Amino acid sequence: MSAALDSLLDLLDLEQIERDIFRGTSRSAVVPRVFGGQVAAQALVAAGRTVPADRTAHSLHSYFLRMGDPGAPIVYSVDRIRDGRSFTTRRVVAVQHGQPIFHLSASFQTYEDGLEHQADMPAAPDPETLPTAAEMLPRYADRFSDPGVVDRLIEARAAVDLRYVDAPPFGTVGEPREPRSQVWFRTNGKLADDPLLHVCMATYVSDMTLLDSVLLAHGRGGWAVGDVVGASLDHAMWFHRPFRADEWLLYDQESPSASGGRGLGQARIYTQDGRLAITVIQEGVVRVPRKD
After folding, report:
1. Is 207 a catalytic residue?
2. Fewer Cβ atoms within 10 Å of its own Cβ: the N or the C terminal residue of the chain?
3. Is 282 assigned a catalytic role?
4. pTM here?
């Protein structure tokens, strides 16, 4: 296991300070605020720790309310909404400095047999043939006004092996293209067999690249380049089939719409053998800075 992955696992191992109340810390990010995927993953950890072990997460719906302060702890308060015979529902509020910064609702289910069908996995190259982030990102160093961005990006993603199928938004600034993006990802090391851990790790990664497709349609490089201002607004995930986050997963992303200073991303995550594991939808603020 890499040191970065070990650090991320520590981040997700919340401290329980009271029944249904947990506390977490933050890690460095590319921008000076708490990474949204971290808050979502930690909130799902908090919810999952109040649920019977035989029930796995099947969906989450969340809202990002305020920017998180990376220098302060985050307190997660869990509300046990319902414990039914098949489904369990939890609500989690993340609080910093006395104010809610994030709200999540999650549902868990006991295993059941049922009808089966799925959308086919799209074509994608073998992930092992693609460059790693450490190999790919320095190629675009001249695109960033801040030379430290590349190092911060590599450090922020060191726990995850994330490989772009095509050039990322900051690699094609000024060249609008189809609003679609694909990345392969897996953790940089093996994980324990706990299904909650794998779901939370996928939740963490899901916020890294989903709005890329919005930027691609307009030839914008993104917040790291400085030609747009962005932030996640809401995030929803549905977990369809078992998967492991330490094995290759294809994140197939697209943007059907951008308007009103917001952009929508939707995606499907497949296992390498073609099983549809997760569906993701996210909307974010995407504003073009005004030039006075």
Report:
1. yes
2. C
3. yes
4. 0.94
Please identify which of the residues 38, 232, 253, 266 carries the catalytic annotation.
Answer: 232
Residue 74: HSE in the Cβ half-sphere, 13 Å Cα cutoff: 34
Secondary structure of the chain in HEC code, one letter for each residue: CCHHHHHHHHHHCCEEEECCEEEECCCCCCCCCCCHHHHHHHHHHHHHCCCCCCEEEEEEEEEECCCCCCCCCEEEEEEEEEECCCEEEEEEEEEECCEEEEEEEEEEEECCCCCCCCCCCCCCCCHHHCCCHHHHHHHHHHHCCCCCHHHHHHHHCCCEEEEECCCCHHHCCCCCCCCEEEEEEEECCCCCCCHHHHHHHHHHHHHHHCCHHHHHCCCCCCCCCCCCEEEEEEEEEEECCCCCCCCCEEEEEEEEEEECCEEEEEEEEEECCCCEEEEEEEEEEEECCCCC
Mark the ranges of the chain whose per-residue pLDDT is less than 50: none
Give every CB contact of residue 56 below 8 A, 6+ residues apart in sequence. Answer: 108, 109, 111, 195, 196, 199, 239, 242
pLDDT in tens, 149-203: 778 888 888 899 999 999 888 777 778 889 999 999 999 999 999 999 999 999 9
145 is catalytic: no
Largest CA distance in the chain: 60
